[in-house]
Design brief:
heterodimer, A: alpha/beta, 5-stranded mixed sheet, 8 helices, 5 strands, B: alpha+beta, 4-stranded antiparallel sheet
Chain lengths: 219, 647
């Protein structure tokens, strides 16, 4: 009995969730990794950025999650979502997170400094839904120096990359949604370069991301 | 709310927030910076962002119908003409951040004529075509921007037409052109032993001022001119039975047909002669070049022509002037005068010609003490003549106290008949529909004209409506213009007070629509005798003319010119300036195409037609013609709405 439950709901899906949330999350858990991923063009990438009230994932709170899809070379505001965690109560947050999971599906996720972003997400998803969130992550912070070595072969602050590419840095702080649109543009450029380098699938990209992180961290 | 509904809400919020960057970008670039926040929001939420690495194709003729309005966010894009024929003034154009393309194609939903390539790494916004059209219809600023862009395409096309004309003009006009292409070819000649009488008879018959004398092998041996007639025949008491060789100037000046116009001009100046004979390789006579032919090669000035017309002693002289008018209009077309000015200019000179013909005929017909006025109708009445226009005229007069009306009318008819015939000789063909002053129907007293107008307006039967389209566009050409003013006041008062008449006119005007196809660009099978062709008058300019007439009558506009009518009635009827300008651009383009067609394709001396083959137009012209027809449809649908016409 317990084994079946564990099988159905992964590692301990929160028992007292409302039925619609429960079924949405189980559906997400049961989902296969997104279909066609034979090239960057066909892969549905989801760019993620977060807002939090501090820098420590273990003690500070996540206040917002923004996600935008990059698919077939195109970024479209219509394919975006924003979860505002400052207004909803715990049950409300659980439902919002279920909607968020439904939106991202099992697509590979893209962010800048994945360790930071994923830690906040994993903590909250564990707390509200009881699931262990393990996504395939592509980290632009490590991939950009690997792919655009002529600009910098070390990780740099995001704005320095924007300047290096001649993109508009803008004024003041960017909201997570605005930041996502910038990250999406970087991803668009990055996959073109990656393809030219023979790194032409999402798995290869994730490998490259890990290798770069390992290489540059240990050096 | 369940998870699904929450997701929809979160997506909405996500879309709104993600649009922020785009809005900030738009706020920095014209015309977007002038657009309302709601319009910017629409753009920002709907536009995708795409990346084009340097060297990649963005959109081109092979990409099919253009699905997006492209706006460059960063980078550089090069626009290159597809194919070998250059349709715009530029062949390569570089576009940067804030610039958009391909406006013409996305508006028309057709493939792009240019190839757009990223020359640097480039980010572009893609606004889907349907959202682009929504934006066009909801944002006046955006609409103006796109309309002006298309207008500039019109402008480019006009300049390109001018370039074609200029080329043809220079081919025709240069003094370097060989004599084989100038003056009379294979002129009549007589043998040296021909009696003077016979030679003079054929000169008179042919209407020529000189006669070449050549031997049996066609080798020129002399020339005999009108001045020789005075000095060597009349004053020398030479009998008309004497052979022409006794009176001719022997050993005339000849040039080979490969010599240039310049050589001929030099010879005339050096030897003080008026004619140069042209010979072929065997030395046989092949042409005559006169001073006048060389003069025509030079740019003929407006003032010279006017003076020539006003002092012309007879119809013969006017005939030459009419040819000059044609040549001059052509030069002006080449110099880049627009259709509006050009048609008015042709009308002005044709007016001068007509007035001179009338004056010459008044020498034989005396109407002193009688108030009368020669009226022009139809295109002449609207100042819109193209190169080939036949006569449409009439007379209005008043019968003085004690004068017999019928006798007076007969005198006017006799005068009109002479005038109509002379006008025909000068180059205005007789009207096939007999709308001429010599027709008793159209030679009427002021009261008769007024009664006629009232009758047409009160009973708008098909014939009355047809007549209205011709006769209501009247203009005084010669005589007492007060009579014509009085007719106009009567007409406007009656027409604006009879809505049922205007409605009938509107219904009539809407019977023919622009030849826009549902699937193909143009419908070209409307004229069964000319498959594949479009009658630019019937299905083009006439639509504008008809609508303008109705609005002018409704708004009490006195002018007859279509452009004036549209401008003035638009003011009165609160139609926006830019809207009416787009309509006028459309009309002007169609008129320019008609002029081009009549000149470039019409055979000299033959009446040109208005039938064009859209397949033979270049891509840009085709596109603009389509847009011009759309403007025609636009004013028609406005008319339809205003007069509640339901077909």
């Amino acid at each position: 009995m317990f084994g079946i439950k564990k099988f159905l709901f992964g590692d301990g899906l929160n028992e007292n969730l409302p039925p619609d949330v429960k079924s949405a999350v189980s559906a997400w858990l049961a989902q296969e990794a997104a279909g066609l991923e034979s090239s960057h063009f066909l892969t549905r990438y989801v760019v993620i950025d977060i807002a939090s009230d501090g820098m420590n994932p273990d003690s500070d709170r996540l206040t917002g999650i923004a996600a935008t899809v990059v698919h077939q070379g195109i970024v479209s505001p219509e394919q975006s979502i924003y979860v505002d965690l400052t207004t909803a109560d715990e049950a409300g947050q659980a439902r919002q997170l279920a909607a968020f999971l439904n939106f991202i599906g099992k697509s590979p996720l893209v962010s800048y400094h994945v360790a930071f972003v994923s830690a906040f997400l994993e903590n909250l998803l564990k707390k509200r839904l009881g699931i262990a969130f393990a996504a395939r992550w592509v980290d632009l912070a490590w991939l950009l120096p690997a792919m655009f070595g002529e600009k910098s072969h070390k990780p740099m602050p995001l704005d320095d990359w924007l300047v290096a590419f001649g993109l508009d840095v803008g004024e003041g702080r960017r909201s997570p949604s605005e930041n996502n649109m910038i990250l999406a543009r970087l991803l668009q450029m990055l996959v073109v370069r990656a393809h030219a380098k023979g790194v032409d699938s999402v798995e290869a990209l994730i490998e490259e991301s890990k290798a770069s992180s390992h290489l540059r961290r240990t050096r | 709310m369940d998870v699904g509904q929450v997701e929809a809400m979160l997506r909405q919020e996500g879309q709104r927030r993600a649009a922020g960057n785009t809005q900030a970008f738009l706020a920095r670039h014209a015309p977007f910076n002038k657009m309302a926040p709601a319009a910017l929001q629409l753009f920002a939420e709907k536009a995708h962002i795409a990346f084009y690495p340097a060297g990649s194709l963005i959109v081109g003729p092979d990409s099919g119908n253009v699905r997006f309005f492209y706006l460059i966010e960063s980078g550089k894009v090069q626009a290159r003409q597809a194919g070998e024929v250059t349709v715009t003034e530029y062949s390569i154009l570089s576009l940067g951040a804030g610039e958009s393309f391909p406006i013409g194609a996305v508006t028309a939903g057709r493939p792009s004529t240019n190839i757009y390539t990223a020359v640097e790494d480039t980010f572009c916004y893609h606004l889907p075509a349907e959202d682009y059209l929504t934006l066009m219809s909801t944002s006046p600023e955006f609409n103006l921007f796109c309309t002006q862009y298309i207008a500039s395409l019109l402008d480019q096309s006009r300049r390109q037409l001018q370039a074609q004309f200029a080329q043809k003009a220079s081919e025709q006009q240069t003094l370097n052109s060989p004599l084989s292409g100038i003056g009379a070819r294979n002129p009549t000649s007589v043998l040296p032993e021909t009696p003077l009488r016979a030679a003079l008879e054929s000169m008179s018959q042919l209407g020529i001022g000189s006669m070449v004398v050549a031997d049996a092998e066609k080798k020129p041996v002399g020339i005999f001119t009108r001045s020789d007639l005075l000095d060597r025949v009349v004053l020398a008491d030479l009998p008309l039975s004497a052979p022409i060789s006794q009176a001719m100037s022997a050993s005339p000046f000849t040039l080979n047909e490969h010599a240039t116009a310049y050589d001929a001009m030099l010879a005339m100046a050096t030897h003080g002669i008026r004619h140069v004979l042209v010979t072929d390789h065997a030395g046989c006579l092949s042409g005559v070049v006169s001073e006048r032919d060389l003069f025509a090669l030079q740019r003929v000035g407006l003032r010279q022509i006017r003076q020539a017309i006003e002092s012309a002693p007879d119809v013969e002289a006017l005939k030459a002037s009419a040819a000059d008018v044609r040549q001059l209009s052509f030069n002006m077309l080449a110099q880049g005068i627009g259709a509006e000015q050009l048609t008015q200019f042709i009308s002005a000179l044709n007016d001068a010609l007509t007035r001179r013909v009338i004056q010459l005929n008044l020498e034989n017909h005396d109407f002193s003490g009688i108030d009368w006025c020669w009226l022009a109708f139809g295109s002449e009445g609207r100042d819109e003549q193209t190169f080939s226009t036949d006569q449409d005229n009439g007379i209005v007069y008043t019968v003085p106290e004690g004068e017999d009306k019928e006798a007076l009318k007969q005198r006017f008819l006799a005068f009109a008949l002479d005038t109509n015939k002379d006008l025909d000789k000068v180059g205005f063909p007789l009207c096939k529909g007999n709308i001429m002053a010599s027709n008793p129907q159209w030679c009427l007293t002021l009261d008769e004209w007024r009664a006629q107008f009232s009758k047409w307006i009160r009973t708008p039967e098909p014939v009355a409506l047809l007549n209205a389209t011709i006769f209501f566009d009247f203009r005084p050409l010669y005589g007492k213009s007060e009579l014509s003013d009085s007719m106009r006041r009567h007409l406007l008062a009656q027409a604006s007070a009879t809505p049922i008449f205007l409605q009938a006119m509107a219904r009539n005007a809407l019977e023919v629509g622009p030849p826009l196809g549902k699937i193909r660009d143009f419908v070209t099978d409307l004229e069964p005798d000319y498959p594949g062709k479009i009658d630019l008058k019937k299905y083009g300019s006439r639509i504008f003319v008809d609508v303008a007439r109705i609005y002018a009558l409704a708004a009490g506009v006195h002018g007859t010119n279509t452009i004036q009518r549209l401008k003035l009635s638009a003011q009165k009827m609160n139609i926006k300036g830019e809207e009416i300008n787009a309509v006028l651009d459309g009309l002007n383009f169609i008129q320019l195409l008609r002029l081009q067609h009549q000149y470039l394709e019409g055979e000299p001396g033959r009446q040109g037609d208005n039938l064009i083959d859209p397949e033979k137009l270049n891509e840009l012209d085709r596109r603009i013609l389509k847009e011009s027809f759309r403007q025609a449809r636009k004013i028609q649908s406005r008319l339809k709405l205003d007069y509640q016409v339901n077909h």
